[in-house]
Amino acid sequence: xxxxxxxxxxxxxxxxxxxxxxxxxxxxxxxxxxxxxxxxxxxxxxxxxxxxxxxxxxxxxxxxxxxxxxxxxxxxxxxxxxxxxxxxxxxxxxxxxxxxxxxxxxxxxxxxxxxxxxxxxxxxxxxxxxxxxxxxxxxxxxxxxxxxxxxxxxxxxxxxxxxxxxxxxxxxxxxxxxxxxxxxxxxxxxxxxxxxxxxxxxxxxxxxxxxxxxxxxxxxxxxxxxxxxxxxxxxxxxxxxxxxxxxxxxxxxxxxxxxxxxxxxxxxxxxxxxxxxxxxxxxxxxxxxxxx
Length: 292
Hints:
Helix content: 25-40%
Number of domains: 2
Shape: elongated
Radius of gyration: 21 Å
CATH superfamily of the largest domain: NAD(P)-binding Rossmann-like Domain
Oligomer: single chain
Number of helices: 9
Order of helices and strands: HHEHEHEHEHEHEHHEEEEE
């Protein structure tokens, strides 16, 4: 639980840094009270929108829609395609008059555009990382290294290495007193849904309790990962093949644990005694204290 913070001795930017956990959009920025703004201070929270497609526009709109709680401005933008930035800026400017303050010299293209957009923010500002999942860990890592809060639309990566990087970045953010927020959790899935259509369910999340049948460590270029098999529930009729990142402290063969992960597919294996076992494939973390 976060320590309470007196509104009388900090400004809005410090409240963003030191306050309680940040949910995204309206719940992130709407938590500020207008009474925490001191006259004469520049307490404007600047946003850098990295990825100016539909999801980026929606996230920026959610943030600026609660600006009545205090000054919030879109200050910088980055995208590989300038036309997309221009279109996004035009649409947002019409909806949020006076809140889109992005001059041409604060619109960045190219593969290093995200760095330039983040570099002009101040501590306490927010980098809105709304690009595709495969590149997002790189953007999140850089923002945190610069002391900038992060706003993600979806809290997942496209592979175990990317997820491992996000977890490490989140740990660094906590040490620095920064916040990593998400707009919404991934939609939920289940065993039957994955068995019916794994392609449709890929990218959704499942949290399940079960018994560890097998666990082994694998060394990779991005650190140690763990793979194995566990039951879904307490019978062997439903099985998960998992890749785990983060800590596995206290998790051994036979342990009863909770695992949360992203669906990446399904598999079927023939049993020695006959029949076939169908399993859900997940990439995620064990729900233990070290991973919270």
